[in-house]
Amino acid sequence: MQLRDALDDYKRHAGGGTRFPGERRTVSGRFSGGDGRLVHVGDDGELRDFGYPLTGRTGLVRSRIGLAVGDEVTWLDEADTTQRYVGDTALVETVHETPRATVTRHDVTLGDAHLTRASVEFADADDGDTDATPVDPADASLVVYARFAPDGRDDRVGQLRFDDAVEVYHADEHDFLASATGFADLRGQLPTTFPELLADDPTDLPRDRDGDRYEEERLSGEVIADVPFDDGVATVATLLTDGAETDREAARERLDDLFTDHDNVDALADAAADALPAVPESAPARESVAADLRVLSLLSAPSGLRIAGPDFDPYYEHSGGYGYTWFRDDAEISGFLLGAANALDLHLDDWHARSAEMYVATQRPDGSWPHRVWPRDGALAPGWANARIEDGPDVDYQADQTGSVVAYLARARAAGVDVEGLDATLVAALAGLDRTLEPDGRPVVCQNAWEDSAGRFAHTAATFLEAYSELGRHGEGVTVDALADPDAVPGAASLPDDLAAHARDRAREVYDALDDLWVPERGCYAVRETLDGGIDDRLDSATLGLAAAHRSFDALGAADGEGGAVDDERLDRLVSHVETVVDGLSHETDDIAGLIRYEGDGWRRADQLSEKVWTVSTAWGANACAELAALLAAHDDPRAAEMAARARDLLAHVSPGGTLCEPTTYLPEQYFDDGTADSATPLGWPHAIRLATVALLDDELPQFTDAPTADD
């Protein structure tokens, strides 16, 4: 997104009650991608690239497509439009109904290229439509307006022209627009001018040709092309390249091959299907499972790391940005995928291995992981929680990220994921966890999961309990000898020989220490101990992480032949806690129903007076209830049935057809009370939670399928 676009959006949406001006929203429309490049196809047909964090290339920042008949152009974003995915793929079909014709588009992103195939069917003048007039197909063409920002620049940009392609370049990034049928006309234009930027009203683009500005034909990233139809079909492609990696001739050959190999809709669909994991026909909630895998693939870089969501606010006007990898979200997603793969017969071995490889590669020398990294290569990204890198106290550090990564790596090791350096990474991480565990058995003061406060959080303790438990279960054979130089990792040299036993001991310490956060008056665990030593007893959906953590801890006792490690008192407290949090955070209006993030949450409310509903929190509630149901069932506790029913109720809100799931099958981060979706869309974390919860309910809790629901 360029500043010009942000200012244009600001003019269009300033003062809106549920719109934050200056953003590029993706709450409508659909994405195509799956191998790095990420292209948004708006519900009106506009194309925009969102893949910079995944590939380092900016590509398209604005576009419009129109149908020209003679000198008259009908822009398709002004027509009545419907849109869908074709099957389980990321092939997007968009149908535009104009007065003169129906234009059916198919958009697909394949690696670094994006193809748009448009077929036109002209209205019959004799069909009763008095506005329809006969059209000579020879007089029609597809009009494509595209603005590129190579290297993220909208200045100092140039163009090179060819018969069937135009190359837009700055320095490293060279972007191509090409047509399978050549160009009937091609021109450029300058970006929005200073007077236009300062005007009160937004500027509609593209402008008419200006013969007095000859330089605009070559010195900008904006092009307007007339593309002839051939038997009613026109196909255009964009290709993003690094000039040092792909020379001009190779780029043009690739474009030619794309047109040749994908000259019909079936070929496009086949190519799109190859980019995603197959979902068995027998999978439960198959539409939901396919949608979740599609989203998680779209958000993934070739490295395996994922952005949290498409970055709708790159200027940090209303948020801190979303186009980065957080190790909390990413490792939680990896863990959910690992657990769901076997249950749903999904073949994701390469996903598991890529995640593990990148976690090994990005670990810091002290055993922790940084706040945010660029997913394309794991390099440090802008953030505000890098205390372990900077001088000074470690308060601005998110210890739960390290806990989440350790839990995943331990499970991955047990599942047979074998990557170089995995054991050494676990040793260093164990030493790092120990250094951030206070003598009382709870983690140190640090930032919380929501990154908006500091303290000693129940959620952070939950991630430590889960990490220690999983390492205690699956860490046999991991020794300090895995480190090339134990003295180089603070605290590693003093670790005992039996690291798995040490992790089990630590897990019991954390388990016992959680009693310090129990609030009997509310029947729940406190969200945190504050900096002054007080107890913050607000309800917070992040504390729902205690359910899965206790299930991991319980498996320690089962592995030792003790029949489970969670005692009856703790089971009672967990049931009370989950019920209290779910009931206390539940929020319902005429348009939506789900869980708010936490009591007193004031973020991105706009004109709304109350807290907004979050899909992450709602999905987390469903998963926590399912995890707790499985734990209760393992203890032959009859409350398992009711908890499984609660899980299904909450899952329904975020499932296709639920009030928190868009018709696109996407889960936005948040909702206003009037049903308006907001913030990053789709957000990867709730999609992974939804996937895991479907798998858990089907695989481990089928006996409760017919149990009465809470509404019954």
Structure overview:
Residues 1-12 have a biased composition (Basic and acidic residues). It comes from Halorubrum miltondacostae. This protein is α+β, with helices and mostly antiparallel strands. Helices cover 33% and strands 19% of the residues. It contains 17 helices and 29 strands. The strands form seven sheets. Strands 6-7-8-9-16-13-12-11 form an eight-stranded antiparallel beta sheet, with helices on one face. Strands 5-4-10-15-14 form a five-stranded antiparallel beta sheet, with no helix packed on it. Strands 25-26-27-28-29 form a five-stranded antiparallel beta sheet. The longest helix has 20 residues, at 615-634. The chain is elongated, with a radius of gyration of 27 Å.
Strand order of the largest sheet: 6-7-8-9-16-13-12-11
The helix fraction, in percent, is: 25-40%
Number-wise, the strands total: 29
Radius of gyration: 27 Å
Approximate strand percentage: 15-25%
Which stretches are low in confidence, meaning pLDDT under 50 for 5 or more residues running? 708-712
Q: How many helix segments?
A: 17
Largest sheet: 8 strands, antiparallel
Shape summary = elongated
Structural category is: alpha+beta
The averaged pLDDT comes out at: 94
Termini separation: 49 Å
